[in-house]
Specification:
11 strands; four-stranded antiparallel sheet; seven-stranded mixed sheet; mainly beta; 126 residues
Length: 126
């Protein structure tokens, strides 16, 4: 999983297409597990999106790095089990990721739940 702050991204988006072109330096986030859900009901209706990912590196430096990274909105890049890479969020509708520390042993849970006018899109570079 990777994150790109919107302020560092150059995005070319054509609404209604299934592809998104993004230029920028993605920040890799090592997750131990993740679950992505997207509910596309009817064309014209918002798309319900939900992500939960677990980070097991709970060192103070990692937690600080993630808190800083997710203090701004951006784009999220995830790799699916079918090897496809999709981008969640656009320049007009970025993602805000929340982080919570819990458990014993400790873990960090990265998550968001939102309604978006557009579904996740296949990444194309330019």
């Amino acid at each position: 999983m990777s994150f790109l702050p919107l302020s560092d991204a150059e995005v070319r988006n054509l609404p209604g297409t299934d592809k998104l072109q993004v230029h920028g330096t993605w920040v890799n986030i090592d997750i131990s597990s993740g679950e992505w859900k997207e509910n596309r009901e009817e064309v014209g209706n918002p798309v319900e999106q939900e992500l939960k990912a677990t980070v097991t590196d709970t060192s103070s430096s990692m937690e600080s790095q993630l808190r800083t990274l997710f203090s701004v909105d951006g784009l999220l890049l995830i790799g699916l089990t079918n090897k496809e890479k999709i981008v969640i969020g656009t320049d007009e509708f970025p993602v805000h990721v929340s982080m919570e520390r819990s458990g014993d042993p400790a873990k960090l849970t990265l998550s968001f739940k939102r309604s978006s006018p557009e579904p996740a899109k296949v990444l194309e570079s330019f």
